Amino acid sequence: MRSVIAATAIALSLTLSLTLSAPAAARADVPLPGTGGMKYQEKTGDPVRLTAYGLGTGRAYLRAAKGAAFAWEKGLSEVSVAPGGRLAAGVPTGYRSGYDALVVTDRTTGTSTRIRTVKKPLTASYASWSRDGTKVALTVEQKVSGKWRVLGFTVVDVAAKKARTVRVSGLSAQAGFWWSPDGNLVSRHGTGLRFHRPSDGAVVRTLPGVGLPTGPEDAFSPSGRRLATWCPSRLRERLCLVDPIAGRIAQRVDVRPEAVFGWWDESHVIAVMAHRGAYRLSVVDLKGEVTRVLASVPARTWAAELWLSFTRTS
Length: 314
Known about the structure:
By secondary structure, this protein is mainly beta. 8% of the residues lie in helices and 51% in strands. The chain contains 2 helices and 26 strands. It has helices at residues 2-21, 299-303, and strands at 27-31, 39-43, 48-55, 59-63, 70-72, 76-81, 87-92, 99-106, 112-119, 123-129, 135-144, 147-157, 162-167, 178-179, 185-189, 192-196, 203-207, 212-213, 227-230, 239-243, 248-253, 259-265, 268-275, 278-285, 290-297, 306-312.
């Protein structure tokens, strides 16, 4: 008996020794200029990296290719970084020679290319990178009787430096286009979603009644097996997880985030949660529990239409 106890004690001692000697993940508090003092808390090994953010359409900030410094991208209303991290896509704040454009920047060299998209008075914005990082989809709008109306989408081939616009009939006023993992374009449709072929806008598939997408960020999980939506009003829960193959809601999460900015990993989302009169950017598991706080968000900063863009590192 004594030998068993002794062996157990040695094993526990070794385990504790290994645990104490294992290096802790390095943590950095990254300042976010223009946000009223926000600092983003990141660690080595995080599956995503905050690479861009902004306040409404007035200010967009892009992270340097190396390090943690963010800089205001003057002249851009939005910016996002491609998978792999090398390229950034930005939408200018105004037309040039009567055309809207997409500005693609190589973050390692700093060189930029301006690619024409649509002609005034149309606009093309809300950039969505394909998962292979070769194309950007933009939502095309026009102001009609003082209200913005979605007319279709523009697909930009980054390598070819060419843009092609497709008009789609029957879209809702708040439709928006973003890539699915299989290379189609997804948009809200009624109380559900519709998949469109990027070559001509033809409807590939409709998922009725599954709820609306959580945002212009990639709402698909890293594996593509789940899709985050805002639950339909018939349900008590706020966040729903859809099986895109079966075309149905697979899980309802008892949590009420203010916004969702994509997935952290396969079992967590990135969400803004109300907290003591302000907000917190948090990692939330699929049971609705906050497992990590990434940043405190002042109420005035959230009211200024803060948006955040992440790039997957693993």
